Amino acid sequence: MTGRAGASSGDSRADSRLTLEAVFREERGLLLAALVRRFGDLDLAEEVTSEAIEAALVHWPVDGVPPKPGAWLMTTARRKAVDRLRRDQAYAARLAVLQVEAERAAAPPPSTDGGLPDERLQLFFTCAHPALPAEDRAALTLRCLAGLTTPEVARAFLVPGATMGKRIVRAKNRIRLLRIPFRVPDADELPGRLPGVLQVVYSIFTEGYAASSGPDLQRLDLAEEAIRLARILRRLLPGEREVAGLLALMLLIHARRDARTGPDGDLVLLDDQDRGRWDRAMIEEGAALVVVALSGGPPGLYGVQAAIAALHDEAADVAGTDWPQIVALYDVLRGLAPSPIVELNRAVAVAMRDGPAAGLALLDALADDPRLCGYGPFSTARGDLLTRLGRPAEAATAYREALELAGTEPERTHLRGRLAEVTRVREER
Fold first, then answer.
1. Secondary-structure percent of the chain, ordered helix, strand, coil, rounded to 5
2. Cα(98)–Cα(191) distance, integer angstroms
3. Residue burial 100-120, b: 16+ Cβ < 10 Å; e: rest
4. Do residues 210 and 226 touch, judged by C-beta distance below 8 A?
5. What is the pLDDT of residues 378-406, one digit of tens each?
């Protein structure tokens, strides 16, 4: 009886902790963005945001979560910021100059959503400003908007924590030195700047979907953070079809997450996945967003990719997939954003439509492209097509190349299995 009561008490504390974490997760980005807008300094905003959350961790378990937790956090953070500025007059003077410059640069744009402040959208565009190096943009977005700690961001980029800390400091200093304003671009700037924001979010998702290295195939935490950021963008920019396309693409891919690995974390290919484990609600949401993304104008990069993902998700099996339509969509995609990766994926789709020989001919035509040197999926695709064509010796060579390039242990395990299989076939001949 006592044990049961203790367990209940422990469960209650755990539930309370989860509730607090959910509140902080939701409110942190809003709070940080509003403070950046108010004080014009990212470092100060981050520090007082963290202090406000620490204060909440002390008071809320005792007093209860307030009816308006965001307002409580904002009031606490503002007080702490004012206290700090009173103690450091030189810092306050510098911030006052920054604030005046920001106000001169642009008046606050009207809110794009009745319930969400526009400050968070401003922070998106500041973190993804084209004056920042690409790697710094993604790191700053993860740190500020996704709320990951510096060590967590470092793990996502496979670099030491100290290296990532310097990178984030460098990005903040560049924002300060270049006087990059915390504002949403003007209407004529938006088309040129929005793709950078979307690219950062998709880069985060890509690392979550297929980790660069480590013991696990997927980093679900990163994938889910990217989807959360895309949902925020979707609410803030409901008229931007490419935002809908990006969210659709990520949802349609992420819907397969549970079926992509086996019980031991091993890689499960699309052909072998249990489609009953795919998230049907997520697929329906993504498919509806594809319609939005492809309606009302020329198709966009993410909308076309989302349409390809939808065709995969809606098929009963690999054989029943509409491969002709997928090839046609890759033809559209290569016109929008030509790249060797698009050509590689198109070649695989052609192999499914016209047979492995047709696909292999396309892959061989790409073999001299330096951008595919060191790209493991290219060697894996060649190995798979050579296996289907009954050429095990050449397949073994391709799989060995892919194995040397594989970043995660599940990929290596899968490729070792493929290599052993074709080696056995070759020896039996």
1. 75, 0, 25
2. 27
3. eebeeeeeeeeebeeeebbbb
4. no
5. 999 999 999 999 999 999 999 999 999 99
